[in-house]
Specification:
Blueprint (H helix, E strand, L loop, with lengths): L5 H22 L2 H60 L1
Length: 90
């Protein structure tokens, strides 16, 4: 294993602190905040578009289910008529 020595380790620590501090300053800058706001606005627009699509799909599914129920009711009535006709013949 390598031993860096106290001076080198301290230098790395101080460099990391300075780099971290500079990074925090950059992340907290006015330009960065504007960037975050634009990114959040884009996310909200995308969410709204997705929700519109979800609503459209839900409405389509409701229409499909209503049509399916109508089809089943018609078939049930037709089956009942056929059964009555067979009963009358017998």
């Amino acid at each position: 294993m390598f031993h860096f020595g106290i001076k080198r380790e301290f230098g790395c620590f101080v460099g990391g602190v300075l780099f971290g501090t500079a990074g925090l300053k950059l992340l907290g800058s006015r330009d960065a905040k504007r960037g975050y706001a634009h990114a959040a606005a884009a996310f909200l627009r995308a969410k709204d578009e997705v929700m519109k699509n979800v609503t459209s799909v839900r409405e389509s599914c409701s229409d499909i289910m209503a049509d399916a129920r109508d089809i089943n009711e018609k078939r049930a009535k037709e089956a009942a008529v056929i059964i009555e006709d067979e009963a009358e013949k017998a």
